[in-house]
């Protein structure tokens, strides 16, 4: 299970033994209510079950040492809190009816937290995107300076990805918020389909249209894969923060609190530890995808090879993603941004970032694309080699100046050209 360092209390409580067994009991009582509505269980017996059915975790665990079966241990412990009406506990159902439906119920609780987490991160990213909408910075491809962009566009790109994450999340969440009360091999031989519908309605779940003894595990695999995609998004964003905080760049920096220490040996260190932390946790979640996919293939109507794995990956994935979303939201909320350094870094390559604009102007002036490219590229190579000024080299070449005026070059070397569609992009993303 996830170590407490990466648990937040609200999510940890959902997956604790007390809440797990309470979910099992909620399912059992919902089944009895359904039987009552179908005329099988008398009102008096249901009232006693509703009033008195209870358990203690320690008693269940002690019973399990004898039964070697957790659901039998649970039902026998609950039965000890009842009188003759205990005969209706677990009536007509099998263990997986309870466990799988309870998983849907627990995941529904977890999803409420994750949904709020995701929405909060989106709100913060949107606010920061608007704040830095026109904050110019260098765009990089392959880690190398390319052309100007804005920090707002970087964040708007994140926001757009988070919208896709949100859409995938809602679909996958609906899939696992499911129940099945269909008996030993899913035939409803010992309980009516109407009972399943009543139970799922009471618990706020969707009755799966067909099941074996278990809910189909492609639902859970899709869910874990969706969690992994969200984790991968956070990892991608965190990687950008980590790069931009490098000493040679230092365009952003994670908030560094008074009294915080970056290194046990080097007092000057300020490291992007939060972004590195969520990067590592994303790797754990992505590793769960393989397990979830393997859990799909069960023998015939069921085996329990998935059970042990799910006891780990379902709580751990939701707990880790909850932690990651919360922590990265705080990182972005408190992020220190250095706009002056961003603008200054545009000049690191001595004007090379405007090479495409120069080439396109030469094409507009009459050169072929090949001729324009071959005229410009040697000058860029000279700048790389000698660290001279790109525009100075252009102005010294009659092949350029015969075609481009000073105002043409002023326009080519003006970063505002690259930002003229920022408003339109923000509109497309939904960040007007």
From TrEMBL:
Record keywords, A-Z: Lyase, Purine biosynthesis
Any GO CC annotation of this UniProt entry: cytosol
NCBIfam families: purB
Name of protein: Adenylosuccinate lyase
Similarity section: Belongs to the lyase 1 family. Adenylosuccinate lyase subfamily.
A biological process term (GO) from this entry: 'de novo' AMP biosynthetic process
Domain Adenylosuccinate lyase C-terminal, first and last residues per copy: 350-430
Protein origin, superkingdom: Bacteria
Enzyme class: lyase
